[in-house]
Design a protein that fits this description.
The complex is a heterodimer of chains A (239) and B (154). Chain A has 239 residues and is of the alpha/beta class. Helices cover 46% and strands 15% of the residues of chain A. In chain A, helix 5 packs across helix 6. In chain A, strand 4 and strand 5 form a beta hairpin. Chain A has 7 helices and 9 strands, in the order H-E-E-E-E-E-H-E-H-H-E-E-H-H-E-H. Chain A has a domain of 129 residues. The longest helix of chain B is centred in the first third of the chain and has 15 residues. Chain B contains 4 helices and 9 strands, in the order H-H-E-E-E-E-E-E-H-E-H-E-E. Chain B folds into 2 domains: 33 residues, no CATH class; 100 residues, Nucleotidyltransferase, domain 5, CATH 3.30.420.270. Chain B is 31% helix and 21% strand. Chain B is an alpha/beta fold and 154 residues long. Classes of the chains: A alpha/beta (239), B alpha/beta (154).
């Protein structure tokens, strides 16, 4: 009768284990999301205090004016333009390959000039360490030196060169993002090309956590800064 | 001889299902590791625009979301509205919302916080500009226009 029971407890049937695991799996599939948030990163300008002095006039050739109207049409530098041409236009603005009068004048930055400036500002700081403007200038030139160390003498955009993007209140968000995307794409392409040429790999693959590559990122950014200004809305409303 | 013959030709033996739980557990762990719990119930419809030059937000806990789109429930209208947390909000509530979020965070990470604008693509820019102005006003300057990853076309 009790022949088998003396041989220890019998094996537990594991057949239903799969069902339990499936149940858990389905629960997690339903309650979780896989999407990591991604998007176009932008830095908004800080609010302008009311008593701020008038901003200095910027040369017309240094501003790339992009307007988007309520019908999602593009007006770039006073010309009607299709969105497919915007990337090429932006690239031209950043590089000015034909040295046109209407595009920003790119200045050659040489090692001699940079080292001279750094020595000059170091001297000023040694004499008067109170003025924060000197330290700021020194930092600026240090960044240029870093760029020269890594990629040699280069042409730099004037500090006032900027893409000014304005939209109407009736512009669709979709169009606005497409314009932002094209502008970013032009800059990313230029950066990729420079990085590929100098460091042998595209800009996106440079790792900012690696100090060596972080320097490369800074150098590339120095040459092609991302200067997109999303203009004050009250300026738009006047149009 | 008969000892060996007896087991032959009884048909194919059943495949052992003993390893099935292991396979399923593997899948389960994969999903547990790669996904996060859905933490927000959407009350507005959003179909984000797509873009190619996107940056991935590495740390979701450092992002505040402002969601804009037409409500699911048409009793709340068909015009795009703002959703903060789990309820509708007006423009002037954004400031307090972001400030509150900021105060709840650790001092060390406050400067890294970004605001993600999840906006339906059919929204008009007027509303988005108002939100942007509000964010500027309270000093939340780092923003992300949340988009889908599209493919480049040349």
């Amino acid at each position: 009768m009790a022949r088998k029971s003396r041989q220890g407890p019998g094996e537990i049937n594991a057949g239903s284990m799969a069902d339990i695991a499936f149940l858990l799996l389905i629960f997690f599939l339903v309650t979780t999301t896989m999407d990591t948030d991604s998007g176009i990163l932008r830095q908004l300008p800080p609010p302008i205090p009311e008593d701020a002095p008038e901003p200095p006039k910027v040369k017309e050739r240094d501003v790339y004016v992009v307007l988007v109207n309520s019908r999602d049409q593009l007006l770039v530098e006073s010309n009607l333009m299709d969105i497919s041409e915007l990337k090429a236009g932006t690239r031209e603005f950043f590089t000015n390959p034909n040295n046109l009068e209407t595009l920003p004048e790119r200045k050659k930055i040489t090692r001699a000039e940079v080292t001279e400036k750094i020595a000059y500002f170091k001297g000023l700081i040694a004499a008067d360490s109170e003025t924060p403007a000197y330290a700021k200038e020194l930092k600026k030139w240090d960044r240029k030196l870093n760029a020269i160390n890594l990629i040699g003498d280069y042409y730099e955009l004037p500090g006032s060169a900027v893409i000014s993007l304005r939209n109407d209140t009736e512009t669709s968000y979709d169009m606005y993002i497409q314009v932002q995307n094209e502008l970013t794409r032009a800059i990313n392409e230029l950066r990729d090309e420079l990085s590929e040429e100098k460091f042998g790999k595209p800009y996106i693959e440079l790792n900012k956590n690696n100090p060596e590559e972080k320097k490369m990122i800074m150098a590339v950014r120095q040459v092609y800064p991302q200067r997109i200004s999303e203009a004050e809305p009250n300026v738009t409303k006047k149009n | 001889m008969s000892k060996f013959v007896s087991t032959k030709n009884k048909g194919t033996p059943a495949i052992s299902t003993a390893s099935l739980p292991d396979i399923v557990f593997m899948l389960l762990f994969f999903f547990m590791v790669t996904t996060k719990m859905r933490d927000q119930e959407l009350i507005v419809k959003i179909s984000p625009p797509s873009a190619t030059e996107v940056t991935k937000m590495e740390n979701k806990s450092l992002v505040d979301f402002i969601i804009v789109g037409p409500p699911f429930d048409e009793r709340y209208g068909t015009e795009p509205r703002i959703q903060l947390d789990d309820s509708f909000a007006t423009i002037d509530q954004i400031g307090d919302f972001i400030k509150q979020r900021k105060e709840n965070r650790d001092e060390a990470v406050r400067s890294l916080v970004a605001t993600s604008l999840k906006v339906d693509k059919h929204t008009r820019m007027g509303l988005v500009t108002d939100i942007k102005q509000e964010l500027r006003h309270i000093g939340a300057l780092k923003i992300v226009y949340s988009t889908n990853q599209g493919s480049r076309k040349d």
